Amino acid sequence: MRFLKGNTYQDMSRIAANQIAAQIISKPDSVLGLATGSTPIGLYEYLVKWYKEGDLDFSEISSVNLDEYRGLDGTSDQSYRYFMNTHLFDHVNIDKAKTYVPNGLAEDAGKECARYDALIVSKGGQDLQLLGLGNNGHIGFNEPADCFEPGTHCVTLADSTIQANARFFASAAEVPTQAYTMGIRNIMQAKKVVVVVNGKAKAEAVKNAFFGPITPKVPASILQLHKDVTIIGDAEAFSLIN
């Protein structure tokens, strides 16, 4: 496990984008596990910029996204499919047929989870998995629990997660209460993991996840057992660690 610090959000975003760019250049047909939320937006901006400057080629890349809200269609401006199109896919030469996000409108949750697990296996797993970090230590939508959930599953979101995501909606009442998410096994089987985190509000989560005990009460703590994890944060996010 290694830590890379940027003094600002832009610094952090550039460092993280360099990690992903290096993966694309070294293996042009990489399978990227991608994340949404406010933290990765800056690094996606760098990737788009470098593509437009001719430094990156996404033509052979495949992607699998961490999660999707249950009940939202991919055309909804709050869906994670829409997020990925808006911030990355619409601006680079990736084949959208090779970009995968859980189906938020699937009627049978069990079948959808099994389908997504099988899809990840069929792609050979993620060469690089990008993660954010929730205030409560969640990764993807793996919320604090009594045990680690291994595979893709449908989760009822914690109140703290709903409140944190309410800023993207007109009100907290409009935030979906359930989501499909990759499980801990899906994430841990990625060959490389990159975690991005910024802001003082995440400092406690960083300390608990990477310097505390490994426990499903802090889902990201399992990453302490992964063989290749890089945590990239700004000065505020790293303010409680040496």
**Could you give the distance between the termini?**
14 Å
Structure class = alpha/beta
> Element order, helices and strands?
EHEHEEHEHEEHEHEHE
Q: What is the beta-strand fraction?
A: 15-25%
What is the share of helical residues?
Answer: 25-40%
How many E strands?
10
Mind telling me the C-alpha Rg? Answer: 17 Å
User: What is the CATH topology assignment?
Assistant: Rossmann fold
Instruction: Please work out how many helical segments DSSP would assign.
Output: 7
CATH architecture: 3-Layer(aba) Sandwich
Residue windows where pLDDT falls under 50 for at least 5 positions: none
State the major sheet: 7 strands, parallel
Question: Shape, please?
Answer: globular
Q: In CATH's first tier, which class applies?
A: Alpha Beta
Number of domains: 1
Mean pLDDT: 95
| Largest sheet, spatial ordering of strands | 1-10-9-6-2-3-5
Task: Describe the 3D structure.
With 242 residues, this protein is α/β, with parallel strands linked by helices. The protein contains seven helices and ten strands. A seven-stranded parallel beta sheet has the order 1-10-9-6-2-3-5, with helices on one face. The mean pLDDT is 95.
Quick structural overview:
By secondary structure, the protein is an alpha/beta fold.
Layout of helices and strands:
Blueprint: E1 2-6, H1 9-26, E2 31-34, H2 41-52, E3 62-65, E4 67-69, H3 80-87, E5 99-100, H4 109-122, E6 128-131, E7 153-156, H5 159-165, E8 178-181, H6 184-188, E9 193-197, H7 203-211, E10 229-234
Parallel strand pairs: 1-10, 2-3, 2-6, 3-5, 6-9, 9-10
Antiparallel strand pairs: 4-8, 7-8
Helix pairs in contact: 1-2
